[in-house]
């Protein structure tokens, strides 16, 4: 589980630093030149792929094309929700529910039952998270990137807040798994 | 600003490079230490060797000591480093990255460490949030700048060192002993607020010395970060505080008249306080503005110390002062007022009503010797040596009280990490801490010209005796005297270099007394001379004592003269005055007065008095020499 969290954090860590830099820039001019430098030196895989990795590590959502690249990180072949299930927690646990929502996924009910089904979570219809990362990948000009960072457009994701919540929820779910179902407070 | 980054992710390194270049206008150093070390770990089985090489390398870089502060970003390549138990430098099973993080934090108190990943400091959300790399902490680096960050970490304001100490306190040796059980626990928090950095740092250090974690606050930015501002009226140009969960302070040193260089143009509104009263020198308004200062009044055991020059030249100022006093009394909490300047750190402690009773108790517990051997864990001895080396280096070049306090903090940390074990290194740390403290006192104009050294000698005795308990029983007292003598002489040398003549003489007098004690203990027959040596040490300490000694001897011999050589027909008073005159005459001239009878007993008394007079003559010459040889 810790290895999974480590890998998830590293997916979005560079973007967190970049967005922090954009927010802390002294004025709009330096913000734009900062954004231009980010775009110019952008390396690594696209953010949509990163989101797919996140979803696979959390709920094995994403299909075989992503699985071959990221399965090695899984804890004994189990994603986070499988680990949650193994330790006796349920989908109704508030932190588990929030984790699912932060990944842009929707729950199909409050429990993992009926057994052996892996479609207890599915991508949301209104996928704000997916659309944000899509826009991020498509951003080619500095003003577009600055606008995405400012999160002033309605329905745009506030990435820094989202990532802070994700980190917090992952830690909380980790603690829940370590402490077991007694302290979980869920329905299951 | 110096930023050292440990990562193997090029993308992450690049984003950090952009951030620090753009926001702080400084470049970053990338280190690849951990990856090679992690590979070697399996083969050598000693992760700490690699840590030691790196820490030594960083310590030799003078920038690590002289810079106002620096940042290290640690991005471990695997998840094991994120486990809480790994941030324990004395755990043999700890993983190399955890060892690196913990050792860096302990060895470089000014360093602001940022850890990547979910760090499990379950005990303290402040340490976890303040040292986990996130948008919040990146904002903090912008908000505080590096000098502000080092003020948060130097005296462990964020509590990260205390978290590591808590792990060490619980670590068991294979034989079941708990070697670090008596390691000082800093669970209380102090803040010192003064726009004069020397006062703020010195006050915070005094609190740190007494077992508090502390933050010196010299700017509006830092005060708004640490104490929180109740309403949001910063000028738009200034970044907002990070929102870290700082604790409510248990002790606050505060200047009455605050005038920060970055004071906002408009102060927050307070509906219940009239506009004319809205100034920070009004304690009621101050408590309203600073959220945690207002909350602290409700805290059990909260202590508030006002440090002020105390001028109340006009009736208006006097009236304001009375209003403040009435408010503090009505608000509860213990209040002390200290008027600047103060006569050194110990006078400061006394005036603030702080006692080092708990430190004395801890020293006794540590020296009971029921935990393990006389040696502190080797890794901590290494850290202590790094701290001592850097403290010496810093003290040798210190030009200001703030730099001297930094050296004192390093030595204090080294002393505490050794918990009185590994006596030679521990005594070196004690000596260095006191040297740095007297240097800070002497360099600071806010301390009176004459510094209180008597309390310091008592403190040195207590600390040295706690450490000396590990020496063999026969050697213990001698070792203790030897260490105290060495420290007293080093302090005298330090005072001499700082032109503090009276304090230098006090140290030399103390050293002389200790040297006599040491000399007497070498051969049993020398104990016969002990009273004489004590008398010499006593009278040479000051001219006043010498005069008191001479007068006492004259009176003593006057009584003997009264009984052995009295005028038969005179009254009692006349007989006594005659005896007194006779005694004084002989003391001054070594000639008996003419009317004196010459019995064998009287001659014997005169001979003894002659020896005493000669001895005091020698002491007088010594005094004159000491006075004449002063610069």
List its traits.
heterodimer; A: 188 residues; mainly alpha; two-stranded antiparallel sheet; disordered C terminus; B: 631 residues; alpha/beta; 25 helices; 8% strand
How does this structure look, described?
The complex is a heterodimer of chains A (188) and B (631). Chain A has helices at residues 2-24, 28-40, 47-59, 64-70, 80-86, 94-102, 128-138, 142-150, 159-179, and strands spanning 105-107, 121-123. With 188 residues, chain A is mainly alpha-helical. Chain A has a two-stranded antiparallel ribbon with strand order 1-2. In chain A, helix 1 packs antiparallel against helix 9 (159-179) and helix 6 (94-102) packs antiparallel against helix 9. In chain A, 40% of the residues are buried. With 631 residues, chain B is of the alpha/beta class. Chain B contains 25 helices and nine strands. Chain B has helices at 10-23, 33-44, 47-60, 63-66, 96-107, 125-131, 135-153, 160-170, 197-209, 220-226, 283-289, 291-296, 315-331, 345-351, 357-367, 378-397, 401-417, 423-443, 454-468, 473-497, 501-522, 530-540, 543-564, 572-589, 600-628, and strands at residues 2-6, 28-31, 70-74, 111-115, 188-193, 212-217, 251-255, 303-308, 334-339. Chain B has a five-stranded parallel sheet, with helices on both faces. A four-stranded parallel sheet of chain B has the order 2-1-3-4, with helices on both faces. In chain B, helix 9 (197-209) links the parallel strand 5 and strand 6. The radius of gyration of chain B is 30 Å and the shape is globular. The two termini of chain B are 43 Å apart. Chains A and B meet through helix 1, helix 2 and helix 9 of A and helix 1 and helix 7 of B.
Instruction: Note the beta-strand portion of chain A.
Output: under 5%
Name the poorly predicted regions of chain B. none
Share of helix of chain B, binned:
55-70%
| Rg of chain B, Cα atoms, Å | 30 Å
Number of strands of chain B: 9
Write down the overall geometry of chain B: globular
Global morphology of chain A: elongated
The biggest beta sheet of chain A is recorded as: 2 strands, antiparallel
The mean pLDDT of chain B is 82
Q: Number of DSSP helices of chain A?
A: 9
Order of strands, widest sheet of chain A: 1-2
The oligomerization state is heterodimer
| Estimated share of beta-strand residues of chain B | 5-15%
Helix content bin of chain A:
55-70%
Number of strands of chain A: 2
Radius of gyration of chain A: 18 Å
Structural class of chain A: mainly alpha
Q: Work out the helix count of chain B.
A: 25
Mean pLDDT of chain A: 79
């Amino acid at each position: 589980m810790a290895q999974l969290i480590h890998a998830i954090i590293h997916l979005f860590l560079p973007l967190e630093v970049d967005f922090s830099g954009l927010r802390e820039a002294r004025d709009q001019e330096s913000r734009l030149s900062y954004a231009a430098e980010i775009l110019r030196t952008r390396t690594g895989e696209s953010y949509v792929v990163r989101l797919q990795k996140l979803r696979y590590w959390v709920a094995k959502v994403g299909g075989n094309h992503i699985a071959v690249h990221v399965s090695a990180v899984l804890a004994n072949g189990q994603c986070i929700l499988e680990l949650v299930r193994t330790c006796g927690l349920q989908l109704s646990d508030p932190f588990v529910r929030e984790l699912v929502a932060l990944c842009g996924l929707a729950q199909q009910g409050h429990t993992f039952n009926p057994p052996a089904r892996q479609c207890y979570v599915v991508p949301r219809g209104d996928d704000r998270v997916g659309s944000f990362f899509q826009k991020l990948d498509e951003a080619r000009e500095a003003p577009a990137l600055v606008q995405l960072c400012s999160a002033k457009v309605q329905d745009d994701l506030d990435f820094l807040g989202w990532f802070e919540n994700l980190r917090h929820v992952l830690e909380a779910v980790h603690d829940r798994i370590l402490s077991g179902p007694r302290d979980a407070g869920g329905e299951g | 600003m110096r930023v050292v980054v440990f990562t193997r992710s090029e993308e992450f390194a690049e984003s950090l490079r952009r951030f620090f270049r753009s926001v702080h206008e400084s470049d970053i150093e990338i280190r690849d230490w951990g990856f090679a070390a992690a590979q070697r770990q399996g083969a050598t089985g000693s992760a700490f060797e690699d840590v030691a090489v790196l820490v030594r390398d960083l310590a030799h870089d003078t920038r690590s000591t002289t810079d106002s502060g620096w940042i290290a970003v640690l991005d471990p390549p695997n998840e094991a480093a994120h486990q809480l138990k790994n941030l324990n430098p004395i755990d043999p099973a700890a993983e190399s990255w955890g060892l690196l993080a913990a050792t860096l934090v302990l060895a470089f108190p000014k360093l602001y460490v940022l850890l990547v990943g979910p760090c499990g400091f379950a005990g303290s959300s402040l340490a976890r949030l303040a040292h986990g790399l996130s948008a919040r902490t990146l904002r903090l680096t912008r908000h505080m700048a590096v000098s502000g960050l080092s003020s948060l970490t130097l005296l462990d304001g964020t509590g990260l060192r205390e978290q590591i100490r808590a792990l060490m306190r619980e670590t068991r040796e294979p034989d079941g002993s708990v070697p670090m059980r008596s390691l000082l626990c800093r669970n209380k928090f102090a803040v010192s607020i003064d726009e004069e950095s020397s006062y703020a740092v010195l006050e915070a250090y005094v609190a740190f010395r007494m077992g508090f974690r502390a933050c010196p606050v010299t700017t509006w930015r830092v005060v708004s970060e640490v104490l929180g501002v109740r309403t949001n009226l910063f000028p738009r140009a200034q970044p907002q505080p990070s929102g870290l969960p700082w604790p409510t302070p248990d002790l606050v040193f505060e200047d009455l008249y605050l005038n920060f260089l970055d004071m906002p143009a408009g102060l927050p509104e307070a509906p219940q306080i009239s506009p004319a009263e809205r100034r920070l020198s009004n304690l009621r308004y101050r408590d309203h503005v600073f959220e945690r200062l207002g909350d602290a009044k409700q805290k059990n055991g909260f202590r508030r110390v006002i440090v002020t020059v105390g001028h109340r030249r006009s009736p208006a100022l006097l009236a304001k002062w009375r209003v403040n006093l009435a408010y503090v009394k009505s608000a509860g909490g213990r209040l002390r007022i200290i008027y600047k300047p103060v006569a050194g750190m110990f006078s400061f402690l006394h005036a603030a009503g702080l006692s080092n009773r708990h430190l004395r108790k801890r020293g006794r517990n540590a020296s009971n010797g029921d935990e393990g051997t006389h040696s502190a864990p080797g890794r901590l001895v290494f850290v202590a040596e790094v701290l001592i080396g850097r403290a010496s280096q810093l003290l040798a070049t210190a030009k200001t009280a703030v730099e001297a306090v930094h050296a004192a903090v390093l030595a204090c940390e080294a002393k505490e990490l050794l918990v009185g074990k590994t006596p030679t290194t521990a005594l070196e740390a004690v000596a260095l801490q006191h040297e740095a403290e007297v240097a800070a006192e002497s360099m600071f104009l806010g301390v009176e010209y004459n510094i209180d050294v008597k309390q310091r000698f008592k403190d040195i005795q207590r600390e040295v005796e706690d450490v000396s308990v590990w020496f063999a029983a026969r050697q213990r007292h001698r070792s203790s005297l030897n260490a105290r003598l060495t420290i007293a002489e080093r302090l005298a040398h330090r005072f001499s270099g700082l032109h503090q003549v009276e304090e230098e003489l006090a140290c030399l007098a103390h050293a002389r007394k200790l040297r006599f004690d040491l000399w007497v203990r070498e051969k049993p027959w020398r104990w016969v001379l002990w009273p004489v040596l004590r008398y010499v040490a006593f009278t040479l300490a000051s001219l006043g004592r010498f005069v008191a000694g001479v007068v006492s001897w004259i009176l003593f011999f006057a009584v003997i003269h009264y009984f052995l050589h009295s005028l038969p027909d005179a009254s009692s008073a006349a007989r006594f005055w005659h005896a007194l005159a006779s005694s004084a005459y002989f003391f001054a001239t070594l000639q008996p007065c003419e009317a004196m009878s010459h019995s064998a007993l009287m001659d014997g008394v005169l001979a003894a008095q002659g020896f005493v007079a000669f001895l005091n003559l020698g002491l007088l010459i010594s005094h004159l020499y000491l006075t004449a040889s002063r610069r």
